[in-house]
Amino acid sequence: MKALETIASVIDALIGSIGRTLCWLVLPMVLVAFAVVFMRYTMGKGFPWLQESYIWLHGAIVLLVAAWVLQEGKHVRVDLFYKGASAKAKAWIDIIGVSLFLMPMMGFLFWWSLPVVQRSWRLMERSHTFDGLPFAYLMKTVIPVFCVLIMLQGLSMLCRSIVTVARGDRRDG
């Protein structure tokens, strides 16, 4: 059980540090969005690459902090039974949810995205917009990274849930 707790702690530390670090990208994203709106409506100028930069930055932030959101329990959860359940029941729900839904879905998305990302890197794909950003391949790479981070967090949840079930912990939490 100690090994499972150690694995979960290492994963949680990694995911937590990635999430807390990437949250700081929200400030530049907002500033870029403000600059785009300001230039468009006060100066009558638009730069596709600048508009794409905040759209892509937003997408990257959402995908790359999703595992941290899951870790913190701030994700959307259909809460029919979970909130009032004991720690052991919550652990069983998490074991089933992670095993039957989260891991297979993220595995499928990872497997499905790899050829797209590989092709994008091979072509050094750029934006389809004239004067857009020249590195669409980097944005596409975020998708399999997202899958890996979510699967890591799922593994952490699974480890912690197995420990809870094995110990017979019935405390709420």
Report on the structure:
- With 173 residues, this protein is mainly α.
- The chain has one domain.
- It is built from five helices and no strands.
- Helix 1 runs antiparallel to helix 3 (48-72) and helix 2 runs antiparallel to helix 3.
- The two termini are 19 Å apart.
- The relative contact order is 0.18.
What's the alpha carbon Rg, rounded to whole Å? 20 Å
Task: State the helicity in percent bands.
Answer: over 70%
Sheet-strand content, in percent, reads under 5%
Q: Give the overall silhouette.
A: elongated
Indicate how many domains the architecture comprises: 1
Q: How would you characterize the largest beta sheet?
A: none
Give helix and strand order, one letter per element, not per position: HHHHH
Structural class from helices and strands?
mainly alpha
Q: How far apart, in Å, are the first and last alpha carbons?
A: 19 Å
- What's the total number of strands? 0
Low-pLDDT windows of residues = none
Average pLDDT over all residues: 91
Helix tally equals: 5
Question: Main traits of this protein?
Answer:
mainly alpha, elongated, 173 residues
